[in-house]
Amino acid sequence: MIPYGRQDIAENDVAAVREALLSDFLTQGPQTPAFEEEVAAYCGALHACAANSATSALHLACLALELGPGDWLWTSPITFVASANCALHCGAQVDFVDIEPGTGNLSGAALEEKLAVADKQNRLPKIVVPVHLAGQPCDLRAIHALAQRYGFRIIEDAAHAIGARYLDEPVGNCRYSDITVFSFHPVKIITTGEGGIALTNDENLDRQMKLLRSHGITRDEREMETPPAGPWDYRQIALGYNYRMTDLQAALGRSQLKRLDSFVARRRQLARRYDERLAELPLTPLEQAAGAESSFHLYIVRVAAQRHLPAFTALREAGIGVNLHYIPVHTQPYYRRLGFNTGDFPAAEAYYREAISLPLYPALQETQQDTIAEKLHEALA
């Protein structure tokens, strides 16, 4: 089976984890803050808060922005469920904004239209979460302009997009957002096994996320209401969680980060080969928007709905591990019970009936890619 995605682990990665494993700290040691500094520096952000998953980082971001009961979070329906669930974990409500058919990303035009209606109904969102599907950045400048007009905050769900660029700057610099979240799951661009990180240029948001990722406990005398009883003293000043990243994970992440640019370059090379090999087939790859340089976490094509299941099945039977990213969140049983229905977001639902994610990862060989293209030719003949 050729998987749709796969981690790339080198001897240097193994050595980095071994060194951390044999050190004095398996967790809460020097590796995690070093990893945070290195990711922030790579992206051009001032602060970074590593967590045990991107899901945890999204939750921390919402908490730091004080999302709670009575508030609304809007996101794309074409995403993993965590982009919406983070609001529910805060007691807030969720709504969705339909997508651009070409890119699969949240539609700026649909967002503007929905905001105008919500403004009249006094139901504006507190947070909007644009999702950089497949590694291609959303139109952040346009979304930021709407945030300035309507007063919402922005969390970039960039789980797919470390190494991507927007308007010739790295995704993650938070120029057009309050917080950016990356994922380091094994099929992502770089991996820490499981893990995520939240970047921000706001020192207070960073401090709050780091407090809440470790039970809401502080040892900082400045945050204690009374002087410490001794050097052992600590205070719980908020209701937090155990969302910490271990030093083993961070050591792997630091090693992987050194190869990030080469990983992204290889993914872009393979994406160009797909473009060439599939050009004459009755399918449409996701469009690449002007000003956005995808990191190509995924290579997604759309085929006619009537051919979708036969093509998907034929590829799987040929040992090609195609996948579908994603089932629209609002059609999931849990979200249907919240009142969402089929037909609510027609562009997202049309996308779902047509999307196939083809294998794409740095170790994918050209011969394997040629086999994928040949089998796709046969499936769509």
Mean of all residue-level pLDDT scores: 98
Oligomeric organization of the protein chains:
single chain
Shape: globular
Percent helix range: 25-40%
Question: Over the alpha carbons, how many angstroms does the gyration radius reach?
Answer: 21 Å
Regions with little confidence, pLDDT below 50 for 5+ residues? none
Query: How many strand segments?
Result: 15
Secondary-structure class: alpha/beta
Largest sheet: 7 strands, mixed
Span between termini: 22 Å
| Beta-strand residue percentage | 5-15%
Task: Please state how the strands of the largest beta sheet are arranged side by side.
Answer: 1-9-8-5-4-2-3
Helix-strand sequence: HHEHEHEHEHEEEEEHEEHHEEEHHHEH
Helix segment tally: 13
Summarize the structure in words:
This protein is α/β, with parallel strands linked by helices and 381 residues long. 38% of the residues lie in helices and 14% in strands. Helix 9 (260-277) runs parallel beside helix 13. The longest helix is centred in the last third of the chain and has 18 residues, at 260-277. The chain starts with 10 loop residues before the first helix and ends with a helix. 48% of the residues are buried.
Can you describe this structure in just a few lines?
Helices cover 38% and strands 14% of the residues. The chain has helices at residues 11-21, 31-43, 54-64, 82-88, 108-121, 140-150, 203-212, 247-257, 260-277, 305-317, 333-337, 346-352, 366-380, and strands at 47-51, 72-75, 93-96, 127-129, 153-157, 165-166, 169-170, 179-183, 196-200, 217-218, 235-236, 283-285, 292-293, 299-303, 355-358. The longest helix has 18 residues, at 260-277.
